[in-house]
Design a protein that fits this description.
Elements lengths: L6 H4 L12 H7 L3 E2 L8 E2 L22 E2 L1 H17 L3 E7 L4 H11 L22 E8 L34 H13 L5 H16 L3 E3 L2 E6 L4 H7 L6
Parallel strand pairs: 2-4
Antiparallel strand pairs: 1-3, 4-5, 5-7, 6-7
Length: 240
């Protein structure tokens, strides 16, 4: 179930800190890469450049491009190539990419003190999106219509999960077999359909082959299999 009721909370908040910022210029100044400059067949529909997200407001303004740290962008492009070889009529569709820390702080403020606080990274040091090394995405038809994944983007329910145990830095605990057992288990219990489970597993398989792993609570979120401490040591915080 989408959590649009949070929008009522948001209505009382002010978010003007980044209204006048040129996010494209700032992203480039941090050395980030626009994914479509590498592969223009990848589709981009930034959910936080619209009101179609759990906050219920546009937080990116005119930003329409998906930016990543360059080596991470290469992994996303590799995933697209793997997918296209297997299914030429499918493409990756990106929902979110690099995210300024100012936006992260606003998102965190919305959920603080609620049961959804654990779904949003702390705005003090930031999460992987705030370093340009996380991607939210799905698989779509060439016309942009997404495949059924059993739960929408920004869904906080069990139906959005891909694994029932904590994420670790050990690849053995995050193998396709582990994810397959869990996702098919959701289908067996009627939480999602078998078609959705198979679509979700296809996305996971493609991303794993490219070296990116899903976050256990969000079928759409993929990242490197390194700790958040290593992420913060290795990459630059998008401090704007």
């Amino acid at each position: 179930m989408r959590k649009f009721f949070i929008a009522a909370i948001v209505a009382t908040l002010s978010f003007s800190a980044v209204d006048a910022q040129d996010f494209d210029t700032l992203m480039s100044s941090y050395g980030l890469v626009d994914i479509k400059s590498i592969d223009d067949e990848i589709l981009v529909e930034l959910k936080y450049s619209s009101a179609d997200n759990f906050v219920g407001e546009d937080m990116y303004g005119d930003l329409e491009c998906a930016y990543f740290e360059s080596s991470f962008a290469d992994r996303v492009v590799k995933a697209q190539q793997i997918l296209k070889r297997r299914y030429p009529n499918y493409t990756l569709l990106i929902y979110d990419a690099a995210r300024p820390i100012s936006v992260q702080r606003h998102m965190r403020k919305v959920v603080e003190g609620t049961q959804f606080e654990g779904f949003v990274a702390d705005g003090t040091k930031g999460g992987r999106h705030n370093y340009g090394v996380a991607v939210d995405l799905t698989i779509a038809h060439l016309d942009g219509s997404p495949l059924d994944m059993g739960a929408g983007f920004d869904d906080f329910s069990e139906a959005a999960s891909v694994k029932g145990t904590p994420d670790t830095d050990d690849p053995a605990t995050r193998s396709i077999e582990v994810y397959r057992d869990y996702v098919l288990g959701l289908a067996e219990r009627g939480v999602i359909s078998l078609e959705a489970a198979n679509n979700r597993l296809l996305l996971i398989e493609v991303m794993l082959e490219a070296g990116l792993y899903p976050y256990r609570r969000e079928w759409w979120h993929f990242e490197e299999i390194i700790s958040i401490k290593e992420t913060r040591d290795k990459y630059k915080l998008l401090d704007f």
